[in-house]
# Entry
Amino acid sequence: MSYIDGFVIAVPNAKREQFIEHARTFDGFFLEFGAIRVVECWGDDVPDGKLTDFRRAVQAEKDESVVFSWVEWPDKAARDAGMEKIMKDPRMPAAGDMPFDGKRMIFGGFTPVVSLPH
# Structure
């Protein structure tokens, strides 16, 4: 079964187009190094919760939107090998100029336990 890297970030609304261009450039690295699919989702219906929510998780400000993203890999071994190559790629220092605060990003690797319709 595949392996998923998930990400949640807060992006200033004024930098939406800059974020999309950044994602188009750097998401290509994931595909180049073995990912099957990359999805970037701009928050549209992200409600405030009573105890916790996406906005609080990334300390989103009023003028920011939550972006939920994931990268699908064939398996964890492909992900580990791909991420190692990405981190060593000489093009990566340019990724440091991100249109969001990377310190507030939350991320993790996940093993699917249910996948429909497969």
Summary: The first strand starts at residue 3 and ends at 12. Helices lie at 16-32, 54-57, 76-88. The chain has a mean pLDDT of 94.
